[in-house]
Each structure stands twice: as C-alpha cells, then as structure tokens.
Amino acid sequence: MLTPTQPFPDLTLPTLGGDDFDVARDMGENGTVVVFYRGAHCPICKAQLKEIEGLLDEAAAQKVNVVAVSGDTKSRADATVEETGVKNLTIAHDLSMTEARNWGLHISKARDGSDEPELFSEPGIFYLLPDGTIYASWVQSFPFARPSFEDVLAAVKFRAEKGYPARGSYTGPLAEHDGTLKVEATDGPHAEAY
C-alpha cells in the first residue's frame, strides 16, 4: 500500500502530445495530480476527463500539473480524446499492469462480451509533492463514486493555504481500542511496543 509522506513510484510514459511524461521531472511548483483512468471502454472516465479539462485553468492557478494515465494503447487513447474533445489535458498511455500494481491500483479482468482490455486498472488519483512524496490518494476498486476533480483541487488549495499536513501516514504499531480508551494489547502481535 502506498502511504502519504512516503516516496511515490517511478512513472515514465508516452503521451499523446509526443513527449514522455516523467512524474519526477514534470512536477508543478505545488506538485502534480496523476489521474489513473480505466480506459476508452469507460463512459464515466470520459466524463471525468472532460471535467478535468474544464478545470485545468484552476489547476494552473494552484500551480499543479495534471496528467491522465491509462493502460490504453495510443490508438485507444487517441479515440478517447477524439470522442471527448479533450485538447489540453496531458494524456499518457501504455501503463503496464505491473506499474498499475506498483501504484496500488486495483486491476480488473474484461467482462465476457465487453470491449474492455483483457486486464486494466481501476481509477485512482494521487496528489504528489515536489519533494518526491505522496500527499493524498483516492483509489477505487470499481468505476463509481470517485471524487470530483473540483474537490481534489480544493484539497490542493487547502494544503497550500493552510499548510495542512498529509494524513493517513501512520504505519507504526497498533493497540487494541475499546472505543474510548487505548488498551494495551498485552498478547497482541505488537505487545512488545507497550
């Protein structure tokens, strides 16, 4: 599991613009938002890409770069851009499923009779900082209930304006909890920590 405040994995992919996107190199002043989408077969993803396209000026005002990434081939990614009318959003393609797994994305198999690729990643959004760490992530196991991009940019803005720290980064030992008081887990796997 990828954890906030920890380093993010390497990611270098071709884009429809002809250049490679390198997550470490192509960082905005306040970071980068990487949006992993399912691919050309997903109508919800197409709506999401249009939403993001409409908020790129706000992202630029927040001094963050935005890239949308899928495991689609170049031709499938081209078809998605053609259908959605997205012109300014950086679209990276050819994400391998190994890379998807390295990013903690859920992977699905094609449904019988669908136009889905044999394997593809489910959606995820990562807000990455210029220091090479993850600030926040939103990872889905299916196409529904992803955050609006407006909400993601609100989080970016709140962090910048208030200095709000990354949350969800604790990876130390855990104690049993009775709902009100911390109770030592004297026989638990981390008893030695107490």
UniProtKB/TrEMBL annotation:
Residues 2-161 form the Thioredoxin domain. Coiled coil: none annotated. GO terms for molecular function: antioxidant activity; oxidoreductase activity. InterPro entries: AhpC/TSA (IPR000866), Thioredoxin-like_sf (IPR036249), Thioredoxin_domain (IPR013766). CDD domains: PRX_like2. This is Peroxiredoxin. It comes from Sagittula marina.
